[in-house]
Amino acid sequence: MLETRNLDKRFGAVHVTRDVSIKLERGERRVILGPNGAGKTTLFNQLVGELTPDKGSVHLAGVDVTDLPVAKRTRQGLSRSYQKNTLFDGLTVAENLGLAAAIHTSNATRIWSDSLARPEVQEIVQDVANQVQVLPYLQARVSEISYGVRRQLEVGVALATRPKVLLMDEPTSGVGPEMAKGFHRLLNDLPRDLTVLIIEHDMDLAFDVADTITVLNYGEVVFDGQPEAARGSKLLKEIYLGSWEDA
Ligand SMILES: Nc1ncnc2c1ncn2[C@@H]1O[C@H](COP(=O)(O)OP(=O)(O)O)[C@@H](O)[C@H]1O
Ligand SMILES: [Mg+2]
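Above: the input record for the complex with adenosine-5'-diphosphate. Below: its predicted structure, written as tokens.
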């Protein structure tokens, strides 16, 4: 469903993505682990089209999308929730979801004020709000909701485009343990045919939701396989300097 072939990227002298080849089957949940600066976010940026790789290619459902801009990749089913906040603070939760849904369900390049009232848009808003558990906050402005609810809404905004592949960059960063647990449940409840790729530093979350794990270190894939095998790997223990046992 999502594949990279020999993806390579340098920023000047820094080699941030080294010959990365990964392949996700339909419905697969994969977690990308790796220390800070390993190149995880840079890899995501190349997947979604915000960065152009120096070499290699990105394939979505069998189609080479390496040269497609972000918006076209979104239309083809690749959606991302951001590590940094990208919500419209002055709009309500429902409006944020509605905008994402409206862009997806129309071919228009502009959204009109009545777009959000369309029944197909409203259906997506309700459905997604239920999935990410923000139904009680639909009429609240984003500026009024808690940090944790914002993080859930960000996933909702990504889901509102009805993706085939959902990418999440550290969805639980900055939320407390209770909220993180809620996130595990939320992720495990997503439709099984949705392919999910998550960057995560929380080992518990990684092992709880992952079918497969990829570990990046200095831009290179150093592990690719089952979570059980990852736990036993000496190399990974070294990379995480013992934090593995504490996780
Ligand atoms: N736009 C950029 N220009 C130059 N260097 C960058 C840029 N973006 C990221 N880097 C560098 O690339 C490396 C990987 O960063 P990043 O992908 O954000 O890592 P991670 O998400 O794994 O923490 C870091 O050394 C970072 O400083
Ligand atoms: Mg990052």
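Notes for the reader.
The chain has a mean pLDDT of 88.
The pocket of adenosine-5'-diphosphate (ligand 1) is lined by residues 11, 14, 16, 34, 36-42 (CB under 6 Å).
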